[in-house]
Amino acid sequence: MYPEWETGSSKDARPIWVALSKQYAGQVKGSATYVHPENTYGSIWLNVEKPMLDSNGIEYKEIFVCKIVKHT
After folding, report:
1. Which of 4, 19, 61, 66 could disulfide-link to 11, CB 3.0 to 4.6 Å?
2. CB burial class (10 A; 0-12, 13-18, 19+) of residue 66?
3. Do residues 65 and 37 make contact, with C-beta atoms less than 8 angstroms apart?
């Protein structure tokens, strides 16, 4: 999805996503929802958001998308 991901270059998008995810996960109140393709987990979710939500006692649900259909 992002051609510059974990490359360490100045165009690497991962540090921005990590920073945004930490801000989100650190401030969420109530509950959260993670939507993703079935059997696929993003590294930001697994390594940043989910651990922060768990440590803050935030309940979350996961929604699995089985198939994405593009309508033209």
Report:
1. 4
2. exposed
3. yes
For the chain, the C-alpha Rg in angstroms (whole number) is 14
pLDDT, tens digit, 9 for 90 and up, residues 10-62: 888 888 899 999 999 999 999 999 988 877 778 899 999 999 999 999 999 98
Helices and strands in the chain: count of H runs, count of E runs: 3, 2
Predicted local confidence at residue 69, as pLDDT: 73
- What is the identity of the amino acid at 65? V
pLDDT at 64 over 90: no
Return d(Cα 22, Cα 2) in angstroms, integer: 19
Please state the pTM of the whole predicted model. 0.76
Angle at 24 between CA 55 and CA 56, to 5 degrees: 15
